[in-house]
């Protein structure tokens, strides 16, 4: 009977040391027993910098061992970061429970980094924009016509608020973690990736999609129409229209303009005028209409109102 009990005690003791391996996925294996915790994961080289920063933040500086980076403490734990692998071994004891908690938390953080969705070395170059999204950095440069600048400005403000600097160019930055520079006809974005600016990176990639849509799709493509009844120019700098028509249509055209821009004023030449100083001007005389708008004012509302007015007036002129 005594021999039988002794055998059970021995078996029970060994069962406490039995390794429990949990395969998180094909890249990550976590093992834990009563006396140890182990973690082993294959990593993509593009994650190495972020993993290094995460370990350093929790466990301080590493030491170099050949091509590996190593963190250890009196034999209680060892963390090894190789080019394509990260390993953790921790020996449990009654006096290192707090370190065990940190080690487990590190394992969870590493799993999150390794498993998260990511862009892999995106490199796109078109006539409107150039994009480079690499392991440690992100850059975007887009070029646009002046009539798109205000839309781009609003998209940036929706993600990052008001610009930090408003001298020559509009600039958004945050502790040098990212930089967004909006110039005349050009927008540039740069970001150095790290574990503490993932939110900024996510916001920038969302902004990227909006900017690409604006750069590619929005705005007229240098419209120039000339015929016997009207001349229309719509390009990056100006929007202008000149139409000729029978005098009996004056009242109808006047009503169309007033529906958008209110009552007209009269100048010394007896012309009806609608204007906003330095932004747009509309002149209506007997049988002649002239419209001009300076796109450097970035007033998208006025621009769209003028286009609507011209469309309605053309329908009247062409009857």
Question: Could you please describe the fold and organization of this structure?
Answer:
The chain folds into 3 domains: 14-115, TATA-Binding Protein, CATH 3.30.310; 122-217, Gyrase A, domain 2 (2-Layer Sandwich); 223-317, no CATH class. The longest helix is centred in the middle third of the chain and has 20 residues, at 198-217. The chain is built from 7 helices and 20 strands. The chain is of the alpha+beta class. The N and C termini lie far apart (114 Å). It has a 7-stranded antiparallel beta sheet, covered by helices on one side. A 7-stranded antiparallel beta sheet has the order 14-15-16-20-19-18-17, covered by helices on one side. Helix content is 34%, strand content 34%. Helix 2 (48-59) packs antiparallel against helix 3 (97-115).
> How many domains make up the coordinates?
3
How would you write the strand order of the largest sheet?
1-2-3-7-6-5-4
Order of helices and strands: HEEEHEEEEHEEEHEEEHEEEHEEEEH
Strand content: 25-35%
**Total helical elements:** 7
pLDDT < 50 stretches: 1-17
CATH class of the largest domain: Alpha Beta
Number of strands: 20
What is the fold named in CATH at topology level of the largest domain? TATA-Binding Protein
Overall 3D form: rod-shaped
């Amino acid at each position: 009977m005594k021999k039988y009990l002794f055998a059970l005690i021995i078996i029970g003791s060994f069962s406490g040391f039995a390794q429990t391996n949990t395969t998180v996925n094909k890249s990550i294996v976590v093992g834990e027993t009563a006396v140890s915790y182990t973690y082993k994961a294959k990593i993509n080289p593009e994650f190495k910098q972020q993993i290094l920063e995460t370990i350093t933040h929790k466990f301080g500086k590493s030491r170099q061992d050949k091509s590996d980076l190593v963190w250890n403490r009196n034999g209680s734990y060892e963390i090894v970061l190789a080019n394509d692998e990260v390993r953790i071994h921790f020996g449990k004891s009654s006096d290192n429970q707090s370190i065990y908690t940190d080690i487990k938390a590190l394992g969870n953080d590493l799993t999150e980094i390794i498993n998260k969705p990511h862009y892999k070395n995106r490199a796109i170059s078109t006539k409107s924009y150039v994009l480079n999204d690499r392991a440690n950095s992100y850059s975007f440069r887009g070029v646009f016509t002046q009539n798109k600048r205000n839309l781009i400005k609003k998209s940036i403000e929706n993600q990052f608020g008001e610009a930090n600097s408003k001298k020559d160019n509009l600039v958004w930055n945050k502790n040098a973690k990212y930089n967004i520079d909006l110039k005349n006809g050009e927008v540039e974005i740069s970001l150095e990736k790290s574990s503490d600016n993932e939110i900024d990176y996510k916001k920038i990639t969302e902004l990227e999609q909006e900017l690409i849509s604006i750069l590619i799709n929005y705005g007229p493509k240098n419209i120039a129409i000339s015929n016997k009844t009207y001349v229309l120019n719509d390009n990056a700098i100006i929007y202008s229209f000149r139409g000729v028509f029978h005098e009996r249509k004056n009242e109808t055209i006047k009503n169309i303009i007033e529906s958008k821009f209110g009552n007209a004023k009269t100048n010394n030449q007896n012309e009806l005028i609608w204007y906003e100083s330095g932004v747009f001007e509309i002149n209506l005389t007997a049988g002649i209409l002239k419209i001009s708008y300076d796109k450097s004012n970035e007033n998208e509302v006025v621009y769209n109102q003028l286009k609507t007015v011209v469309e309605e007036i053309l329908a009247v002129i062409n009857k």
